[in-house]
Amino acid sequence: MRQIHVALGLLSAAVLSACGGGGSAGPVIDNTPTRGTLVANPPVLVPIPQASGPALTKLDPVVFKASLDAAKPGLTQLTGAPKCEISTYYMKYITVGGANEMTDATGAIMVPSGSDPACSGPRPVILYAHGTTVEKSFNMANLRDNSESTLLAAMYAAQGFIVVAPNYAGYDTSALTYHPYLNAEQQANDMVDSLRAARKAFATIGAQDSGKLVVSGYSQGGHVAMATQRAMQTTYASEFKVAALAGMSGPYAMSLLGDATFAGSPNAGGTVLLPLLTSSWQKSYGGLYTSPNEVFEDKYAAGIESLLPGALTFNELFTTGKLPAYAMFAKDSLPGPSSPAFGAFFGDGNLIKSSYRNAYLADAQKNPCNVNPADPLSCTPANPFRKAGVKNDLRNYVPNVPVFLCGGNADPTVFFASTQATAGFFQAKGLPAAALTVLDVDSSPTSAADPFAAAKVGFGQSKTATINAALAAKQDPAAAVAAVYHGTLVPPFCHAASRAFFQQVLAK
Amino acid sequence: MKKIHFAVSALFGLACLSAHAYENTVRAGFINVQVHSESPDFTSNGPAFLTPQPAGLVVQNANTLALGYSRRINDHFELDFVAGIPPEHEVVGRGTLAPYGVISKVKQRAPTLFVNYSFGKPTDSWRPFVGLGLNYTQFFDAKSTAIGNIATGGPTKIDLKDSIGLAGQMGVKYQFNERWSVTGTIAAAKVKTDMTATTGSIERKTTIDFRPVVYCVALGYSF
């Protein structure tokens, strides 16, 4: 019997050995349904794949410079040669949707490091809002494939800024089934929550926050950045201290732009932006329509609420016939185009029902907004779309931080009038001239001392190159410039000028 | 763990009932686990660019010490319990994960209970046998390697579900004398598990069919 005991003892020892194991711990998961929760800490460190062998964890500045210049010759003359190594993280955080419902979203954190003094020690943080995209898979953590993210990394992370850039609720793996597009309150909440979550990760991922915070964004993101700075000034002042705001080509003056579109001056890309807006505002506030076919022609109305953002690219939306490329209004809809340049937006296969346009215009006539530039929103529109436009127009506060507004005066997508009207409003409301800088990159240097001469000259050269390429290809140069104006020509120059503005503010 | 305790105490009970000599045999020997793992590419709840496809894994072979106990039922049948010192398997990447080499390691304990049928007579020196049984495999100490953490994007928790499946074996026993014998076996078992790797907010999942073939040589002592 004793032998049996010994034998079984051995056996059970073997079977039971190494209980309570030493497996790897993994991230700390937090699913607390509270705004700003960082769902997993540390977030995912985005690997940098190599041609062969394992990926790297840091993007080397020399390698980055080579890839930037290969993609766009001369770009690093504008961005500056990258100084810092960059580690990019992909985070998930808890935020709210357009109707204040709890949801989640994802975003990027870029952390600079390296021996250059600009890369080590406490670093300033830029909270960045990206521009409109129709692709749900858009990801600011994907430096390899996302040109906006690459430009941001080159402008800021490679120069020693910690970058926090949310993808927004409704994008990537967010649980929200729509995107609260240009819902100023929600988008500010989203930005705030992404920064809260990022701050929770900073210690884990070696990001040393100097406490200096700047906010910027391009296009949609320009609006979002300003809405965020406004929220941090009015609602979250104890939690966030913003050093400066740089808005680039943003539709800050929402109500102005909406009224201009319906009056006969539609913007390029408007056939895509308008459904994004109606879906957002319908889901956020309700009441825009009972059925989308009250606004949209029947051939587009079915499924339009879930079309954007989605799997299709901008061009695929047009080629598959989901949306018309230009025809916003019917050919015979009155009033017609405000100038011949807007003729293309009136045509067959139009998006907006004339009955809806007529109702909109009737309300605009009865309850006009933007009458007094110093008090543009003292109006009471009855049309729900116009109401939402006023609600999300940012000309209702005065920033208490230095503001830089950049754009190009011939922008066909987001009219420069938005920037001018917003700057004019701020001035009228007492924002000191020293605290407000407006840059039109599509203009000539005012003098040899013009601090923005380089941006203006650079933009001019890019524009000329586009014209020359179009002429060489026997294409219409004006159309060629318009096609790339908002998305390609303006961004690098406004980015470079914004960064110079931030660096100047931060140096004080 | 509860299940294992139960298995062991059940065996213990059997052993205690043994009134006659030479009805029990304990064995110790060497096990070589040949894994022929099959698993589909990882699925992910994260963005596609963070799990570039095809991304999969292959489980490597392992060696360990075997321990076994068998209890004679009659001249042809016996109950046979096989276990071993839990071996550690290296897991290497496949597809886009191939350049990383060993991305994780996992230990397993796989107690298996067979009913064996032996051919010939109890007095034969050589007795071939076949067995059918049940395998229980528990995975533990699963860890992502340092290079694995680079592939996945950070500290990674790996979880593999327990597996229960049929097992079969065939072998031959050579009896030196009344007490001492040597046994050689080839066994196979259905070992299939769901794996989840958690990195940051991303869960990547696959199912691994190990398809193990286990070679064992063991020295036995009867009492």
From TrEMBL, chain B:
It comes from the Bacteria. Pfam families: OmpW. Keywords: Signal. Coiled coil: none annotated. Its main location: membrane. Residues 1-21 form the signal peptide. It is found in: Cell outer membrane. PANTHER family: OUTER MEMBRANE PROTEIN W (PTHR36920:SF1), PTHR36920. This is OmpW family protein. It comes from Undibacterium umbellatum.
